[in-house]
Specification:
single chain, alpha+beta, Ubiquitin-like (UB roll), Creatine Kinase, Chain A, domain 2, Four Helix Bundle (Hemerythrin (Met), subunit A), 3 domains, 9-stranded mixed sheet, 6-stranded mixed sheet, 19 strands, about 50% helix, binds adenosine-5'-diphosphate, binds magnesium ion
Length: about 725
């Protein structure tokens, strides 16, 4: 009764735009989300209160509560035009998956009613046996099940055809309870870091804190190109990047694209994107042109990590949808074009208490600063100790082309703290006072830090892990990947150091003194990971080697560190991933790597055989005819002959390289050990493809533009 009344009112509110008035942006925000406000309105008070407790992890969900919530969700969704619901999940492919079920339930008398039970809300059984599981599911036990993540709100997805689907964020597990997805370990890692952070805070006297959540704001970079160019390129269609293409005369050297005026067509895309995202409750906040031509960025306002991860998936999906609607294609691949910057995701991360404290925000009181320095020490220790795992969290085939390529952070993990904090830490170790902008402060636990400058003067854009005033920005994250992986690593490694810190503080009789000792120790042991200089420079490579920092160059080496002894120890200890789950992930990712490089090789072979070589052969034939005619006419043909000679040389060379790529691919595909196979793909297939590209790109620069069979870099990057 109350539900019915409430929903009618709610829907009238939402549908006001249908009666002529356009929804303002504030009204449009979240209209497609079954969010807290909607639940508060629709659920009986007691159910709402119960659900809040479940969300806070204080009690577990009962079927009774689930039934009431499910019913309200269904009424709300149907009133908004939905006919189907789906358990929306995130398999190891890094994408999202959904299988739609209708609300309709046929009755004995031939009629049907709309139904959605608590059981259907809590648990689903998509057969889903084709998703990669890395051996966790043999086919006889292929069933996986999805379980409602009640901490991430359900939402409606509208497609261009007007179809509306209720999406319920879920975790995806095997019957044996093993995680088959990216979300389950992320949720577990959030639990782990919360538990340890709360212990530390209690030891520091913050007794009111019950929960700590990791917060994330992922900035998303992407490219947009005209769909007609995309469709004409086999490489883009099948791999997401260009495998060939000579540099256009103009690249990004003028830096006129960065923050430049946004072109109308792009502006229209961005506006539509914003509206679509706002409707789903995603707070798309800033948008601008990025460094490379045709490259852009979108940043949302940060949120709880699992919601941020869900939202980022929706952001990527929506970008692609809205682009198509506008005759554009959104490229999320890490390095779609050689010679100009690639894309990444800047993963802004912090920890917040349920009492409203940002633990990485230097405070105004000595006590707040004690907390800040303790958590800063925890992060520094974690990042230095587990740099390999963080690196693995950012690994994918696309990022192999980016990390260390003088545009993105190198594959070496280091932390930028800025000169002020670095000096402060130095001084704490020396027991010296630090002076900042006229303020004087001495030892931690006694004095307070001044507000740190948040302006850009102290920014370092080359650092892979930069402190930016009140959060850390992990800049290695791959643009096309889910952010669940890197944040799962981040939460878990910080959970471990917080655990160690809590052990010390809980035992200590003088907590202030212990914190000082701890900060000093951290600085002596781990300040090697701090680097405030230019991470793109050659000197840093040498310096980092001297400091003993790992430089894990390729993704397959990085994946291996996710399943080594230390990783198993760590992730098992904090109940984030078991040995079997780690191994399965390792296998799945290595296999994905192999498949990706194999697809690239096949696309390259196809393009060369069916597009580039025929064009070049035609051209040389015509050129030979011209030379003969010139000779017959007694005219000078030296220019034409030289050109023919140059083109022919490249043609011969390209043909040989084509054969090499073909042979190497064949050989690599026959290797059965997956790790050796991946290494062969990296060292012989990928490299052969790069070799072949040299010749083809050189040919592109010799042939008349109108004879070139595919759109050029200049077309794709500048022609809008
Ligand atoms: P900049 O990159 O210039 O520092 P912002 O300061 O606006 O830009 O922040 C970039 C991203 O960091 C945004 O998504 C923002 O919401 C997010 N962010 C800000 N504070 C936090 C926080 N405490 N935890 C996680 N992310 C945050
Ligand atoms: Mg940033």
């Amino acid at each position: 009764m109350t539900i019915k009344h409430n929903i009618d009112k709610l829907i009238t509110d939402i549908n006001r735009n249908k009666s002529g008035r356009k929804l303002g942006i504030a009204e449009a925000f979240g209209v497609n989300v079954f969010n807290d406000a909607v639940m508060k309105k629709m659920l009986p008070k007691s159910t709402y209160a119960e659900l809040k407790k479940v969300q806070a992890g204080e009690t577990s969900l009962t079927l009774e509560v689930a039934n009431v919530v499910a019913n309200a969700m269904k009424d709300w969704a149907i009133a908004r035009g939905a006919s189907h619901y789906t358990h929306w999940f995130q398999p190891l492919t890094g994408k999202t998956a959904e299988k739609h079920d209708s609300f309709l339930s046929p009755q004995a008398d031939g009629s049907a009613v709309a139904e959605f039970s608590g059981k259907q809300l809590i648990q689903g059984e998509p057969d889903a046996s084709s998703f990669p599981s890395g051996g966790i599911r043999a086919t006889f036990e292929a069933r996986g099940y999805t379980a409602w993540d009640c901490t991430s709100p359900a939402f409606l997805k509208e497609d261009a055809a007007g179809d509306v689907t209720l999406c319920i964020p879920t975790a995806f597990c095997s019957y044996t309870g093993e995680a088959l997805d990216k979300k389950t370990p992320l949720l577990r890692s959030m639990e782990a870091v919360s538990k340890q952070a709360v212990r530390v805070l209690h030891a520091l006297g913050e007794k009111n804190v019950k929960r700590v959540t990791s917060t994330v704001g992922p900035e998303q970079e992407y490219f947009l190109i005209d769909k007609k160019f995309f469709d004409a390129r086999i490489d883009l269609v099948s791999t997401g990047r260009t495998l060939f293409g000579a540099a256009s005369p103009k690249g990004q050297e003028l830096e006129d694209q960065y923050f430049g005026a946004i072109k109308d067509r792009i502006s229209k895309f961005m506006k539509e994107l914003d509206i679509e995202l706002w409707k789903m409750g995603i707070s798309s906040k800033t948008k601008h042109n990025e460094v490379a031509p045709a490259q852009y960025e979108m940043a949302p306002i940060f949120s709880t990590t699992n919601i941020a991860a869900d939202h980022n998936q929706l952001v990527m999906e929506t970008m692609q949808k809205v682009a198509i609607r506008n005759g554009l294609v959104c490229l999320l691949f890490e390095k779609p074009f050689a010679g100009v910057n690639g894309s990444g995701k800047h993963n802004n991360w912090s920890l917040a208490t349920d009492t409203g404290l940002n633990l990485l925000e230097p405070g105004h009181t000595p006590h707040q600063n004690e907390i800040f320095l303790t958590f800063l020490a925890a992060v520094l220790t974690a990042v230095d100790t587990h740099a390999d795992k963080l690196r693995a969290g950012a690994a994918n085939p696309g990022n192999d082309l980016r990390l260390g390529a003088n545009e993105a952070p190198p594959a070496i993990i280091s932390v930028f703290l800025g000169s002020f904090l670095t000096q402060l830490m130095d001084n704490i170790v020396k027991g010296k006072a630090t002076q900042a902008k006229g303020q004087q402060f001495l030892k931690i636990g006694v004095d307070s830090l001044p507000a740190l400058p948040l302006d850009n003067t102290d920014r370092n854009r080359t650092s892979p892990f930069a402190f930016t005033g009140n959060k850390f920005e992990f800049r290695m994250v791959a643009s096309s990947a889910s952010i669940a992986g890197p944040n799962c690593v981040l939460n878990t490694i910080v959970a471990e150091t917080l655990d160690n810190i809590a052990n010390r503080l809980e035992k200590s009789k003088d907590v202030n003194k212990e914190v000082t000792a701890l900060v000093k120790e951290t600085w002596s042991k781990h300040h090697r990971v701090v680097f405030n200089g230019n991470n793109y420079s050659e000197e840093w490579l040498q310096e980092a080697a001297k400091r003993g920092l790992p430089n894990i160059r390729s993704s397959i080496e990085a994946y291996a560190t996710m399943a080594n002894k230390d990783a198993i120890r760590l992730f098992e200890k904090y109940k984030v991933l078991s040995k079997r789950e780690l191994h399965s992930r390792f296998e799945v990712y290595v296999e994905q790597y192999v498949k990706h490089i194999n697809i690239e090789a096949r696309a390259a072979l196809l393009m060369v055989k069916t597009q580039y070589l025929p064009a070049v052969i035609d051209y040389t034939g015509n050129l030979a005819d011209v030379i003969n005619q010139l000779k017959a006419a007694g005219a000078d043909s030296t220019v034409q002959e030289k050109l023919l000679e140059d083109v022919s040389k490249l043609l011969v060379s390209a043909k040989a390289k084509l054969s090499a790529l073909e042979t190497n691919t064949q050989k690599a595909s026959n290797i059965s050990n997956v790790q050796k196979k991946a290494a062969a793909y990296r060292d012989t297939v990928f490299t052969a493809q790069v070799e072949l590209r040299h010749d083809i790109d050189a040919l592109e620069e010799l042939l008349p533009n109108n004879l070139w069979p595919v759109p050029t870099y200049a077309d794709m990057l500048f022609n809008f």
